[in-house]
Every structure is written in C-alpha cells, then in structure tokens.
Design goal:
alpha+beta, Peptide Deformylase, seven-stranded antiparallel beta sheet, binds zinc ion
C-alpha cells in the first residue's frame, strides 16, 4: 500500500466502528505490513511531519488494528509496534491539551485534551497478550488510534472549541484557523 490508500475526511467510513480481529491470519499480517508501508510512504511525501501511527480503518479496512512507530524522536527508525484489538483498561494521570494531527484529516491540526496516563491491553501480531502503561505522548497516540477503531476522530473532541483548530504553514509552524469561516461549517470535517 501507498499513501494513496489512506482515506481522509469526509469519507464516512472513518466514523464507523471497526470489528475485532479473530484469528491472526496471513491476510492480517499482510495488512499490518501494508499499513506500515502506507504510513512511511505518506511520511516521505511530507516535509515537516512524521507518520507516527495508523489504524486499519485509515486504509479502509474496518478491523481493530493499530501500528505505532517505535521511536517518536528518531525518524530514521522506521520500525513499528503492532497492536491488535487494543483497548484502554484504565485512564489515569491528568487531562492535558496538546496538538494532534491525523493522516485522515488533511492539513488540519487540533489542540486536543487527553489523559496523560493510560493502561492498554492488546495482542501482538503473534496473538500474544500485551499490557502497557503508556504516559505522555505515547498515551496520547494510543487514545487517538483507539478512537479510530471506534469511529472517532480528534476533531470530534474539539468541535465546539473555537480556539482549538490550526493549519500547518509552509514553514512548518501552526497557524490558528478562523473557526467561523474555516471550521464550524466546513463540510470536509463533519
Ligand atoms: Zn488519526
């Protein structure tokens, strides 16, 4: 798969709940590889951004699969961790706002409130149970991706906040969007 296989709003499939993976077949393993390829291909096409993670629904496959980059600080590390049927078992920490983007919400960024600490349970690609306590940015990424498996996008958390929407400028800086003009009634977002 390539970046062109990634679907974006206003595609209504993104707001559908994905199904649980039963048996982790060769087809599922191939899908996982294709998801990683599509994310890296997208990253290679962007000047200022990193392809941090992807959920299967973003390549139009409604299955509860998420891939998350191994190392957020080093773009050269092109490995991912794979989480099948991920679920948040506990919300901890405090709620903090920070910027989020999404490969399926083209060019729009948002300041989204998330928990700073969560516990996650999932299966790895071999079907073995994984339990993780995630903090900080990783906790944010898990919440964003698990939302995707439930048909929810980051913009849905902030839709009533006129100060939360931004666009990426040419130089890589975020510029606040005009809520009335560019966000509230924008048919691409809702
Ligand atoms: Zn996303």
């Amino acid at each position: 798969m390539t970046k062109d296989d990634i679907i974006a709003l206003p595609n209504a499939h993104l707001r559908k709940r994905s199904s649980k993976v039963g048996f982790i077949s060769d087809d599922i393993k191939q899908l996982v590889t294709a998801m990683k390829d599509a994310t890296l291909d997208w990253e290679d096409s962007r000047k200022h951004e990193v392809g941090v993670a992807l959920a299967a629904i973003q390549v139009d496959k409604p299955l509860r699969i998420v891939v998350i980059r191994n190392n957020f600080d080093n773009k050269e590390d092109r490995n991912f961790r794979v989480f099948i049927n991920p679920e948040i078992t506990k919300f901890e920490g405090i709620t903090e706002e920070d910027y989020e983007g999404c490969l399926s919400v083209r060019d729009v960024y948002g300041k989204v409130p998330r928990n700073t600490k969560i516990r996650v349970r999932a299966l790895d690609v071999n079907g073995k149970e994984i339990r993780i306590t995630a903090e900080g940015f990783l906790a944010r990424v898990f919440q964003h991706e698990i939302d995707h498996t439930n048909g929810k996008l980051f913009v849905d958390h902030i839709k009533d906040n006129p100060d939360a929407f931004f666009v990426l400028g040419e130089d890589g800086h975020l510029i606040k969007l005009n809520y009335e003009k560019d966000v509230r009634d924008n048919p691409i977002l809702w």
